[in-house]
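User:
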Amino acid sequence: MKQIVYRGVEYKEALRVVAAQRYEREERRRFVNGASAKAVFGSGVYLVSNPKIAAQYAICHAETTWDQAAVLAQELELDGLAALDERYGENELRADALRWRHTPEQLTRLSAAKRHEEWLEWTGDEIRAYLLDRGFTGIRYRISRELTYFVCYKPQEQIGRISLLTVFDITE
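Assistant: Predicted structure:
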């Protein structure tokens, strides 16, 4: 089953992505101004169900590169995605993923040795490995009726028909 979903990026990147019909980078990113996009579920392409939310992300990306903002629409293959919601969400998944390979003692040592940002990055990688090991290709995380986040660990296989939905100037 497929669904149309959205991603916000800067305009020049949007043009390259549409031409290539594939993303050139995943979500974990350090911006020129020092800001960073956190990939709490590990490296992958992060998408949303709501184009207005995607536009907010586009503005964040465009502000760091002094470019126009763009929202891309694409088809996403939903088969193979792990389902998260208000009953089983990010915290429960993180706990399961960490218990998969680590004892409580190891986790205590690791959490004490890492800064918060390092901990989030590391646990995101653990979540990704845990889900891939179980045959999942990503995540569908329903936040509300209006918003679902999607994470694609195999974007070349999951994402297709990428098109430019809208472009806007962030200085206006």
